[in-house]
Predict the structure.
Amino acid sequence: MISKVKKFTIFFLGDESKLLERLQKFGMVEIENISFEGFEKKTLSKDEIEDKIRKLEFLKNILIESGEKEINEKIIIDEKEEKEIVENFPLENIYKKHFQLYQEIEKRKKIIQRIEKLKEEIMPFLDTEIIFSEIFSLTSFSFFVFSLSQKTKFENTFEDLYITKIGEFQKDTLYIVLFRKDKREVAENFLKEIAGKILYVRNWNKKIKDIFEKLEKVKEKNEKVISEIKSEISKIKINRKEIFVCYDYYKSIYEFVIAKEKLGISKFVKGIKGWISEKNIDTLKEIVLQILPESHIVIEEPEEGDNVPIILENNRFIEPFEVVTDLYGRPVYKNIDPTGPLSIFFAISFGFCLTDAGYGILLVLISLILMKKFRFLPNFIKFLKLLLICGISTLIIGSLTGGWFGDIIYKLPESISFVKYLKKLVLLNPLESGNKSILFLSIALAFGYIQIIWGLILNLYNQIRRYSLKYCGEAITLLLIQILVGIIVIGFLKMKILMKVPLYILLLCFIYLMYEKAKTQKEFMLKGFWAVYGAYSVIAGNLLGDVLSYSRLFGLGLTTSVLGLVINQMVSMVKNIPFVGIFISALIFIVGHFGNLVINLLGSYVHTSRLQYLEFFTKFFEGGGRVFTPFKEVRNYTIFKTNREN
């Protein structure tokens, strides 16, 4: 559900630091800029803190480049230890040292890049014995070095040109043409005639192969220096804890300074303005009056047009599904939080798509293991809890459809007691026959039909809550149409008769819906268009498109089952191979089923989310809400051993 949020304003005298420190520790308010007439914004210099954060960011990147990953588990410390680390850590010296080392590496890398370019440039001339500086020293003569395809032949028709072959490179032959300086145009015309490609050469004073060897030695020397510097830089790992602790500390200080800048200050009084959840108001009052007894607190309801931050508050079973909501966007303040309404449908849809109890068990185990490993990453834990619930759903639905790593329970001997028990749990195996596959599809469509009705009920509730019942005619009509069509279809399928009363009511509902759509337009032609289009959109959307979209549950569930069956068939085919059969079959079973789980896990999550976003949310959800951003300490890498005194 969406928590009730209130605006607060605190007026006080004296030093604000203690109040801000306490509010930051509790992390329950969002602070805005004060905007009352007569107040001025007090700005505090934060350059020094930003500089420290920048230096710590640099050291963090150095850590990562040296092969150290960012921590998965938070560093557990207490306030005393944090204070000692921050006071004793020689940030400036360590930063200066590593910045100089990093600059030296970059300098050496540029040298190596230049060497590589020179090597590429002289590579064609490695086999030649020419020393180009000797040719450059000729005062009356000039020259070109050019290449031709080895297949190209030519004759020198110019007496003023001296041409000789100097080597080969790849599929080309290299030549040098020597000429008097006043015959340059003649040489250029010759090269155009034979389509020769002029090669750039420098005034090298040694043989090219000697230069190449020297360049290699210089490159190796620089690479060795880089390796030594990197080895020196890698020693920064001993300061890993200090870097992360200081980073969190200074980020928290930075947030404190930013909050302090938002204070409204006049000659006599100071003020803080922001947002707070209704349930925390008493705590806020207690904190403020304890620290600043002369203060005055004003609590107000949000006004029309206020950009109210959204706080989602759900119980521990519903909370993991906030991941799904947040990926789409927060609802506006007066709308419904879709997290609770979608939760059971998301879990069941996911189980429908995966449809294998064995995969459900694996998903539960993987989620529990990762939750223990990443217990200090709350957002990731929330996602893992979602996968845990979906794993349980998959286990239940897989048990009911007979999916245990494909059809493994049908291949095991009947004499095994737990196999008999698992078979008794099976209510519908969609792979057993065509009729049961059709029934499985029908259940998926019926499930989708129910969720769409649920969405329309939420839409009606939302309209009644925000307006009143007399303005909810369209919402009531949409819900009635959806229900009546279901009644008519069931009546026709079960009793083979067309139920006249529901049909007449359905026609009246469509007429009323067309009237509601038409009256929103002024021009006659537009009235007719929107009336027809309104009826069409309900038929094509809610009644057909949205319901049929749930057939993807059937398709994905069947795909998982069939792939599992194929993997088991492959295992059966190779298990009787002498000597190695048992090992190959075990490998196929493990790799095949794990791959099937990974592929269909992604498909299950994506398509289940799609059903919520496009078929369910569109019935009632209004997005665009802003996430509540509490003023709190930054704890990306650290956590305190015990709760501190408030």
User: Anything to note?
Assistant: The longest helix spans residues 581-616. The longest strand covers residues 141-149.
